[in-house]
Amino acid sequence: MTETATTAVATETVSSLERRIDMTVMLADIEKDVDQRLKQMSRTVKMAGFRPGKVPMKMVAQQYGSQARSEAIGAAVEKTYGEKVREQNLRVAGYPRIEPKADAVEGQLGFTAIFEVYPEISLGDVSGEAIEKPTLTVTEAEVDKTLDVLRKQRTTYSETERASETGDRLVIDFIGRKNGEEFQGGKASDYTVMVGGGMMLPDFETQLVGVKAGDHKNFDVAFPADYQAAELAGNTVQFEMTVKKVEAPQLPEIDGEFARQLGVADGDTTKMRAEVRANLEREVKKRLLAKVKEQVMDALLKVNPIEVPKALAMMEAEQMAEAARRDMEQRGMMMKNIPVEASWFTDQAARRVKLGLLLAELVKAEDLHVKPEQVRAIVDEFSETFEDPKEVVRWYYSQPQRLAEAEALALENNVVAWVLAKARVSEAPIAFDVLMGNAA
Predict the structure, then answer these.
(1) What's the pLDDT tens digit per position in 33-63?
(2) Strands 236-250 and 156-159
(3) Is pTM, for the whole model, over 0.90?
(4) What is the pLDDT confidence band of residue 7, given thresholds at 50, 70 and 90?
(5) What gap in Å lies between CA 251 and CA 365, rounded to an integer?
(6) Is the model's pLDDT at 380 over the cut of 50?
(7) Do the bridges between strand 156-159 and strand 216-222 make them parallel or antiparallel, or are there none, so unpaired?
(8) Pairing of the two strands 108-117 and 130-135
(9) Whole-number mean pLDDT of the chain?
(10) How far, in Å, CA of 173 to CA of 215, rounded?
(11) pLDDT for residue 22 is more than 90
(12) Is the distance from CB of 163 to CB of 212 less than 8 angstroms?
């Protein structure tokens, strides 16, 4: 290709992060580049009635002229833009927006490149920030609570003749009518509902207590004014319900069979408790660190207010939206008709980008780079819960993406340790239920 002659004026600062470069491209040089591109295409282009390389240039130009011109202009603009960015040592964030200019002189094409640059970061002082480290020691009481949760997860149900109580499971038929007419979504057969589970509207929920199999009830249900179905919002409708089964919950005993369900092959309940405790200690450690890490990141954001390039925030939001789609698809949801908008993640994406920029600057400034042994320690910790830890370690080290996750975690840990060494740190005990998210 020929070297295309272009010129560019000085970069204009549009805002704190936005920059603008005006460029002109000589048409004569564009045409030379187009000719060279067409000649190169003619060597391999295939067209009916002609052997490869023998298609007349006039026909090649008719078929591919627009493509060649577009490529030539794009190459010229990209070349000039790149030269100007390198010349001024600009750290471009995202991709430029290229717009044509209407005021170019005869024989030239004018373009404007509008883009953002990374913010300049001057790290603030975290020594005045207060961080509270929650503390919790796992005891037999926490093991008992965890076993109780595991028992409830394995609850079975059996039919009972007594009246229903909170915690029971019902199988019901129901029909809803508004002004005597059935409405959409108001009818079900063999519907399973938990008594006190909060699955139904309050007026419906109260009718589930104290009923027996075979009972038939008619009652009113008031829909809230903000109910999603507009035709029902703020209205009172009539329901007819038939109770087909009342099933009482039965929790498993903590015995050998229960231990085997938890993966203890020989059914040893002492060994089961030891494994539950070990897993619980790992989970508690992870949650305690997460709470500290959140405070550390908040402190860094507080003392380092920076503006986020919109392009980077949007790219991050789009990646988060795509990750959310994949996650929901993996959970069995049909995502074809369910929109997941990047705009939903704007604030979270901006926070992530800010932290990414701050952490990168802090790691560079304070030499907090990750060491191989730190990554290995995290991988070893990940592998502890698997039957064959060595195989899991091999898998991590054979998967660059997975290993990168461990490296990112190790880097965050380095940053957390550095901030804790500088900030005003205090300790405070935290309740087990609060830490595990079980508090009412």
Answers:
(1) 888 888 888 888 888 878 777 888 888 888 8
(2) antiparallel
(3) no
(4) low
(5) 56
(6) yes
(7) unpaired
(8) unpaired
(9) 90
(10) 11
(11) no
(12) yes
Residue 4, pLDDT above cutoff 60: no
d(C-alpha 132, C-alpha 416), whole Å: 13
Q: Where are the domains of the chain?
A: 6-117, 130-144+269-435, 156-250
Cβ count within 10 A of residue 214: 11
Alpha helix (H) residue ranges in 367-430: 372-383, 389-397, 400-422
Long-range pairs for 365-374 at CB < 8 Å and ≥24 separation? Answer: 365/123, 366/418, 368/411, 368/414, 368/415, 368/418, 369/411, 369/414, 370/407, 370/410, 370/411, 370/414, 371/410, 374/410, 374/413, 374/414
**DSSP-based three-state secondary structure for 173:** strand
210: left (phi over 0), alpha (psi -120 to 50) or beta: left
Q: What topology does CATH give the domain 6-117?
A: Alpha-Beta Plaits (3.30.70)
List of E strands, 11-124: 12-13, 18-26, 92-101, 108-117
pLDDT of res. 274: 95
Q: What is the pLDDT of residue 440?
A: 53
Can you tell me the mean pLDDT for 202-217? 96
Mode of pairing for the β-strands spanning 424-429 and 130-135: parallel
Question: pLDDT at position 9, please?
Answer: 54
**In CATH, 156-250 is 3.40.50.10860:** no
3-state secondary structure of 123: coil
The CATH number of the domain covering residues in 130-144+269-435: 1.10.3120.10
Residue with tokens 């965890």: 146
Express as a percent the part of the chain with pLDDT over 70. Answer: 96
Distance CA 212, CA 243 (A): 7
Q: What are the structure tokens assigned to 291, written together?
A: 């709470």
DSSP bridge pairs for 429: 135
Q: Which residues, in sequence order, are CB contacts of 403 under 8 Å at separation 6+?
A: 375, 379, 396, 397
